[in-house]
Amino acid sequence: MTIHNDYSANTSSKLLSGWLFSLCSLIAAMVLLGGFVRLTHSGLSIVEWQIVTGVVPPVSDAAWQVTFSQYQQTPEYRHINHDMTLPEYKFIYFIEYFHRLLGRLTGLILVIPLIIFLARKTISRREAPLYIGIGLLFALQGGMGWYMVKSGLVDRPAVSPYRLTAHLLLALLLFALCFWLALDKVNQPSRVKRQPKRGLVFKLSLGLTAILVVQITYGGFMAGLKAGHVSATFPLMFGYLIPPDLLSSLQPWPLNLVANPLTVHFVHRWLGFVVLALIGILFYVVRKRTCAWKLQLSVAALLVLGGFQILLGIGVITWHVPLALALSHQTVALGLFALTLFINHQVVVK
Which of 100, 126, 135, 146 has the greatest count of CB atoms below 10 A from its CB? Predict the structure, then answer.
Protein backbone atom coordinates (compact mmCIF):
# COMPACT_ATOMS: atom_id res chain seq x y z
CA MET A 1 0.00 0.00 0.00
CA THR A 2 2.82 2.39 0.87
CA ILE A 3 4.61 1.62 -2.41
CA HIS A 4 1.38 2.21 -4.34
CA ASN A 5 0.75 5.51 -2.55
CA ASP A 6 4.33 6.66 -3.22
CA TYR A 7 3.97 5.73 -6.90
CA SER A 8 0.67 7.61 -7.13
CA ALA A 9 2.15 10.67 -5.43
CA ASN A 10 5.19 10.62 -7.72
CA THR A 11 2.99 10.37 -10.80
CA SER A 12 0.79 13.23 -9.63
CA SER A 13 3.83 15.36 -8.87
CA LYS A 14 5.29 14.74 -12.33
CA LEU A 15 2.00 15.59 -14.02
CA LEU A 16 1.55 18.77 -12.02
CA SER A 17 5.17 19.92 -12.36
CA GLY A 18 5.09 19.39 -16.13
CA TRP A 19 1.85 21.33 -16.42
CA LEU A 20 3.10 24.14 -14.19
CA PHE A 21 6.42 24.46 -16.03
CA SER A 22 4.46 24.62 -19.30
CA LEU A 23 2.39 27.45 -17.86
CA CYS A 24 5.59 29.22 -16.79
CA SER A 25 6.93 28.98 -20.34
CA LEU A 26 3.69 30.34 -21.80
CA ILE A 27 3.51 33.19 -19.29
CA ALA A 28 7.13 34.08 -20.07
CA ALA A 29 6.32 34.04 -23.79
CA MET A 30 3.33 36.29 -23.10
CA VAL A 31 5.51 38.79 -21.24
CA LEU A 32 8.13 38.85 -24.00
CA LEU A 33 5.56 39.09 -26.77
CA GLY A 34 3.91 41.87 -24.78
CA GLY A 35 7.23 43.70 -24.84
CA PHE A 36 7.38 43.26 -28.61
CA VAL A 37 3.82 44.61 -28.87
CA ARG A 38 4.78 47.69 -26.87
CA LEU A 39 8.02 48.35 -28.74
CA THR A 40 6.30 48.07 -32.13
CA HIS A 41 3.42 50.31 -30.94
CA SER A 42 0.89 47.61 -31.79
CA GLY A 43 -1.05 47.37 -28.55
CA LEU A 44 -3.83 49.80 -29.48
CA SER A 45 -4.51 48.31 -32.91
CA ILE A 46 -7.48 46.18 -31.75
CA VAL A 47 -10.10 48.39 -30.13
CA GLU A 48 -12.50 45.69 -28.90
CA TRP A 49 -12.16 42.90 -26.37
CA GLN A 50 -13.89 39.87 -27.89
CA ILE A 51 -12.84 36.78 -25.96
CA VAL A 52 -14.58 34.26 -28.24
CA THR A 53 -15.27 35.93 -31.58
CA GLY A 54 -11.88 37.67 -31.50
CA VAL A 55 -10.20 34.33 -32.17
CA VAL A 56 -10.91 34.81 -35.88
CA PRO A 57 -9.25 37.87 -37.46
CA PRO A 58 -10.91 39.85 -40.28
CA VAL A 59 -10.97 37.82 -43.48
CA SER A 60 -12.76 39.80 -46.17
CA ASP A 61 -11.78 43.22 -47.47
CA ALA A 62 -15.00 44.63 -46.07
CA ALA A 63 -14.22 43.25 -42.60
CA TRP A 64 -10.74 44.76 -42.74
CA GLN A 65 -12.17 48.13 -43.70
CA VAL A 66 -14.55 48.04 -40.73
CA THR A 67 -11.74 47.11 -38.32
CA PHE A 68 -9.45 49.76 -39.79
CA SER A 69 -12.19 52.41 -39.53
CA GLN A 70 -12.59 51.57 -35.83
CA TYR A 71 -8.85 52.07 -35.32
CA GLN A 72 -9.06 55.38 -37.21
CA GLN A 73 -11.29 56.72 -34.42
CA THR A 74 -8.57 56.22 -31.80
CA PRO A 75 -6.25 58.96 -30.48
CA GLU A 76 -3.22 56.98 -31.70
CA TYR A 77 -4.40 57.11 -35.31
CA ARG A 78 -5.55 60.74 -35.15
CA HIS A 79 -2.41 62.08 -33.48
CA ILE A 80 0.36 59.73 -34.65
CA ASN A 81 -0.63 57.31 -37.43
CA HIS A 82 -2.97 59.52 -39.45
CA ASP A 83 -1.15 58.60 -42.70
CA MET A 84 -1.11 54.85 -42.01
CA THR A 85 -2.22 52.59 -44.87
CA LEU A 86 -4.31 49.43 -44.54
CA PRO A 87 -1.31 47.09 -45.16
CA GLU A 88 0.63 48.91 -42.44
CA TYR A 89 -2.34 48.59 -40.12
CA LYS A 90 -2.56 44.85 -40.79
CA PHE A 91 1.05 44.49 -39.63
CA ILE A 92 0.44 46.01 -36.19
CA TYR A 93 -2.96 44.32 -35.97
CA PHE A 94 -1.49 40.84 -36.30
CA ILE A 95 1.20 41.51 -33.71
CA GLU A 96 -1.47 42.35 -31.14
CA TYR A 97 -3.71 39.57 -32.47
CA PHE A 98 -1.07 36.90 -31.85
CA HIS A 99 -0.45 38.32 -28.38
CA ARG A 100 -4.14 37.91 -27.53
CA LEU A 101 -4.26 34.51 -29.23
CA LEU A 102 -1.37 33.31 -27.07
CA GLY A 103 -3.26 34.58 -24.03
CA ARG A 104 -6.31 32.53 -25.02
CA LEU A 105 -4.12 29.46 -25.59
CA THR A 106 -2.49 29.92 -22.18
CA GLY A 107 -5.92 30.22 -20.59
CA LEU A 108 -7.06 26.95 -22.15
CA ILE A 109 -3.89 25.15 -21.08
CA LEU A 110 -4.50 26.45 -17.56
CA VAL A 111 -8.23 25.81 -17.24
CA ILE A 112 -8.74 22.45 -18.99
CA PRO A 113 -6.01 20.51 -17.13
CA LEU A 114 -7.01 22.27 -13.90
CA ILE A 115 -10.58 20.96 -14.20
CA ILE A 116 -9.30 17.46 -15.00
CA PHE A 117 -6.79 17.48 -12.13
CA LEU A 118 -9.44 18.65 -9.68
CA ALA A 119 -11.96 16.07 -10.90
CA ARG A 120 -9.43 13.22 -10.65
CA LYS A 121 -8.10 14.51 -7.32
CA THR A 122 -4.60 14.81 -8.76
CA ILE A 123 -4.67 18.12 -6.89
CA SER A 124 -5.43 17.50 -3.25
CA ARG A 125 -8.35 19.18 -1.54
CA ARG A 126 -5.91 21.09 0.65
CA GLU A 127 -4.10 22.56 -2.39
CA ALA A 128 -7.21 23.10 -4.53
CA PRO A 129 -7.89 26.71 -3.38
CA LEU A 130 -4.36 27.73 -4.37
CA TYR A 131 -4.71 26.34 -7.90
CA ILE A 132 -8.18 27.82 -8.30
CA GLY A 133 -6.69 31.12 -7.13
CA ILE A 134 -4.14 30.91 -9.95
CA GLY A 135 -7.01 30.48 -12.41
CA LEU A 136 -8.82 33.51 -10.99
CA LEU A 137 -5.60 35.51 -11.05
CA PHE A 138 -5.18 34.67 -14.74
CA ALA A 139 -8.70 35.95 -15.41
CA LEU A 140 -7.83 39.14 -13.51
CA GLN A 141 -4.69 39.47 -15.64
CA GLY A 142 -6.76 39.29 -18.81
CA GLY A 143 -9.12 41.94 -17.47
CA MET A 144 -6.19 44.14 -16.52
CA GLY A 145 -4.84 43.80 -20.04
CA TRP A 146 -8.04 45.20 -21.51
CA TYR A 147 -8.27 47.86 -18.76
CA MET A 148 -4.76 48.91 -19.81
CA VAL A 149 -5.65 49.06 -23.52
CA LYS A 150 -8.81 51.09 -22.80
CA SER A 151 -6.68 53.81 -21.21
CA GLY A 152 -5.14 54.49 -24.62
CA LEU A 153 -8.43 54.64 -26.52
CA VAL A 154 -10.00 57.66 -24.82
CA ASP A 155 -8.06 60.91 -25.14
CA ARG A 156 -4.33 60.12 -25.29
CA PRO A 157 -2.40 57.95 -27.77
CA ALA A 158 -0.72 55.82 -25.11
CA VAL A 159 -1.74 53.46 -22.34
CA SER A 160 -1.49 54.38 -18.67
CA PRO A 161 2.01 53.57 -17.38
CA TYR A 162 0.46 52.48 -14.08
CA ARG A 163 -1.96 50.04 -15.70
CA LEU A 164 0.87 48.76 -17.89
CA THR A 165 3.04 48.18 -14.82
CA ALA A 166 0.18 46.49 -12.97
CA HIS A 167 -0.34 44.21 -15.99
CA LEU A 168 3.36 43.30 -15.91
CA LEU A 169 3.43 42.68 -12.15
CA LEU A 170 0.35 40.44 -12.31
CA ALA A 171 2.10 38.38 -14.99
CA LEU A 172 5.17 38.07 -12.77
CA LEU A 173 3.01 37.04 -9.82
CA LEU A 174 1.39 34.33 -11.94
CA PHE A 175 4.81 33.18 -13.12
CA ALA A 176 6.16 33.14 -9.57
CA LEU A 177 3.26 31.08 -8.19
CA CYS A 178 3.42 28.51 -10.99
CA PHE A 179 7.23 28.31 -10.86
CA TRP A 180 7.34 27.91 -7.07
CA LEU A 181 4.67 25.22 -7.07
CA ALA A 182 6.44 23.41 -9.91
CA LEU A 183 9.69 23.43 -7.93
CA ASP A 184 7.76 22.09 -4.93
CA LYS A 185 6.47 19.19 -7.01
CA VAL A 186 9.92 18.41 -8.38
CA ASN A 187 11.14 18.23 -4.78
CA GLN A 188 8.37 15.76 -3.82
CA PRO A 189 6.04 17.93 -1.75
CA SER A 190 5.02 15.05 0.48
CA ARG A 191 8.59 14.83 1.75
CA VAL A 192 9.57 18.50 1.75
CA LYS A 193 10.24 19.94 5.17
CA ARG A 194 10.13 23.67 5.74
CA GLN A 195 11.70 25.29 8.73
CA PRO A 196 11.64 28.96 9.68
CA LYS A 197 14.99 30.43 8.60
CA ARG A 198 16.20 33.81 9.65
CA GLY A 199 19.85 33.47 8.73
CA LEU A 200 21.88 35.88 6.63
CA VAL A 201 21.46 33.93 3.39
CA PHE A 202 17.68 33.89 3.84
CA LYS A 203 17.57 37.62 4.54
CA LEU A 204 19.81 38.45 1.60
CA SER A 205 17.88 36.30 -0.86
CA LEU A 206 14.58 37.75 0.33
CA GLY A 207 15.90 41.31 0.19
CA LEU A 208 17.29 40.69 -3.27
CA THR A 209 13.90 39.49 -4.47
CA ALA A 210 12.19 42.60 -3.08
CA ILE A 211 14.67 45.01 -4.69
CA LEU A 212 14.51 43.13 -7.98
CA VAL A 213 10.71 43.43 -8.03
CA VAL A 214 11.05 47.17 -7.38
CA GLN A 215 13.55 47.40 -10.23
CA ILE A 216 11.22 45.53 -12.60
CA THR A 217 8.39 47.81 -11.49
CA TYR A 218 10.50 50.77 -12.51
CA GLY A 219 11.13 48.99 -15.79
CA GLY A 220 7.37 49.05 -16.30
CA PHE A 221 7.28 52.78 -15.52
CA MET A 222 10.18 53.28 -17.94
CA ALA A 223 8.18 51.59 -20.68
CA GLY A 224 4.92 53.37 -19.92
CA LEU A 225 6.52 56.82 -19.68
CA LYS A 226 8.93 56.13 -22.57
CA ALA A 227 11.63 57.23 -20.15
CA GLY A 228 14.32 55.23 -21.95
CA HIS A 229 14.50 58.08 -24.46
CA VAL A 230 15.12 60.77 -21.82
CA SER A 231 18.90 60.48 -21.85
CA ALA A 232 21.24 58.64 -24.22
CA THR A 233 24.44 59.15 -22.23
CA PHE A 234 26.02 57.10 -19.45
CA PRO A 235 26.94 57.56 -16.63
CA LEU A 236 26.05 61.27 -16.91
CA MET A 237 22.57 62.61 -17.69
CA PHE A 238 22.66 66.03 -19.36
CA GLY A 239 26.19 66.45 -18.05
CA TYR A 240 25.28 65.61 -14.45
CA LEU A 241 25.82 62.48 -12.39
CA ILE A 242 22.77 63.55 -10.37
CA PRO A 243 20.69 65.83 -12.60
CA PRO A 244 18.81 68.75 -10.99
CA ASP A 245 15.03 68.84 -10.50
CA LEU A 246 14.74 65.10 -9.86
CA LEU A 247 12.26 65.74 -7.05
CA SER A 248 11.03 69.25 -7.79
CA SER A 249 9.49 69.11 -11.27
CA LEU A 250 6.16 67.76 -10.02
CA GLN A 251 4.25 68.52 -6.84
CA PRO A 252 3.86 66.96 -4.38
CA TRP A 253 7.47 65.81 -4.67
CA PRO A 254 6.86 62.02 -4.23
CA LEU A 255 4.95 62.12 -7.53
CA ASN A 256 8.29 62.55 -9.30
CA LEU A 257 9.27 59.02 -8.29
CA VAL A 258 6.55 57.48 -10.47
CA ALA A 259 5.49 60.18 -12.94
CA ASN A 260 8.59 62.19 -13.86
CA PRO A 261 10.37 60.38 -16.77
CA LEU A 262 13.72 61.87 -15.77
CA THR A 263 13.43 60.66 -12.17
CA VAL A 264 12.10 57.24 -13.18
CA HIS A 265 15.00 56.83 -15.60
CA PHE A 266 17.51 57.89 -12.94
CA VAL A 267 16.13 55.49 -10.34
CA HIS A 268 15.94 52.57 -12.76
CA ARG A 269 19.47 53.26 -14.02
CA TRP A 270 21.16 53.17 -10.62
CA LEU A 271 18.89 50.67 -8.88
CA GLY A 272 20.31 48.10 -11.27
CA PHE A 273 23.69 48.54 -9.60
CA VAL A 274 22.08 48.07 -6.19
CA VAL A 275 20.65 44.76 -7.41
CA LEU A 276 24.07 43.71 -8.73
CA ALA A 277 25.73 44.69 -5.42
CA LEU A 278 23.23 42.58 -3.46
CA ILE A 279 23.90 39.61 -5.74
CA GLY A 280 27.64 40.10 -5.15
CA ILE A 281 27.16 40.13 -1.38
CA LEU A 282 24.98 37.03 -1.56
CA PHE A 283 27.62 35.30 -3.70
CA TYR A 284 30.33 36.15 -1.15
CA VAL A 285 28.24 34.86 1.75
CA VAL A 286 27.23 31.54 0.14
CA ARG A 287 30.85 30.93 -0.86
CA LYS A 288 32.22 31.84 2.56
CA ARG A 289 29.69 29.61 4.32
CA THR A 290 30.31 26.77 1.85
CA CYS A 291 26.62 26.37 1.08
CA ALA A 292 25.40 23.57 -1.17
CA TRP A 293 27.09 23.55 -4.58
CA LYS A 294 23.78 24.02 -6.40
CA LEU A 295 23.09 27.20 -4.45
CA GLN A 296 26.61 28.51 -5.07
CA LEU A 297 26.33 27.78 -8.79
CA SER A 298 22.91 29.43 -8.99
CA VAL A 299 24.12 32.62 -7.31
CA ALA A 300 27.23 32.69 -9.53
CA ALA A 301 25.01 32.43 -12.61
CA LEU A 302 22.82 35.20 -11.20
CA LEU A 303 25.89 37.41 -10.74
CA VAL A 304 26.97 36.92 -14.36
CA LEU A 305 23.43 37.51 -15.60
CA GLY A 306 23.10 40.65 -13.48
CA GLY A 307 26.30 42.11 -14.92
CA PHE A 308 25.17 41.28 -18.45
CA GLN A 309 21.82 42.94 -17.77
CA ILE A 310 23.51 46.21 -16.81
CA LEU A 311 25.53 46.16 -20.03
CA LEU A 312 22.33 45.57 -21.99
CA GLY A 313 20.62 48.43 -20.16
CA ILE A 314 23.47 50.81 -21.00
CA GLY A 315 23.25 49.70 -24.62
CA VAL A 316 19.50 50.26 -24.70
CA ILE A 317 19.74 53.89 -23.62
CA THR A 318 22.89 54.85 -25.53
CA TRP A 319 21.55 53.41 -28.81
CA HIS A 320 18.11 54.98 -28.34
CA VAL A 321 16.08 51.88 -27.38
CA PRO A 322 16.64 49.60 -30.39
CA LEU A 323 14.13 46.77 -30.66
CA ALA A 324 16.56 43.85 -30.38
CA LEU A 325 18.43 45.23 -27.37
CA ALA A 326 15.26 46.30 -25.57
CA LEU A 327 13.72 42.84 -26.00
CA SER A 328 16.98 41.22 -24.84
CA HIS A 329 16.95 43.48 -21.78
CA GLN A 330 13.42 42.38 -20.95
CA THR A 331 14.27 38.71 -21.53
CA VAL A 332 17.25 38.83 -19.18
CA ALA A 333 15.12 40.62 -16.56
CA LEU A 334 12.69 37.70 -16.65
CA GLY A 335 15.62 35.29 -16.41
CA LEU A 336 16.94 37.15 -13.36
CA PHE A 337 13.52 36.96 -11.75
CA ALA A 338 13.20 33.21 -12.40
CA LEU A 339 16.71 32.46 -11.16
CA THR A 340 16.14 34.55 -8.02
CA LEU A 341 12.99 32.53 -7.32
CA PHE A 342 14.96 29.33 -7.82
CA ILE A 343 17.59 30.52 -5.33
CA ASN A 344 14.93 31.47 -2.79
CA HIS A 345 13.35 28.05 -3.18
CA GLN A 346 16.69 26.38 -2.42
CA VAL A 347 17.11 28.54 0.67
CA VAL A 348 13.57 27.98 1.99
CA VAL A 349 13.03 24.30 1.17
CA LYS A 350 15.07 21.77 3.03
Answer: 100
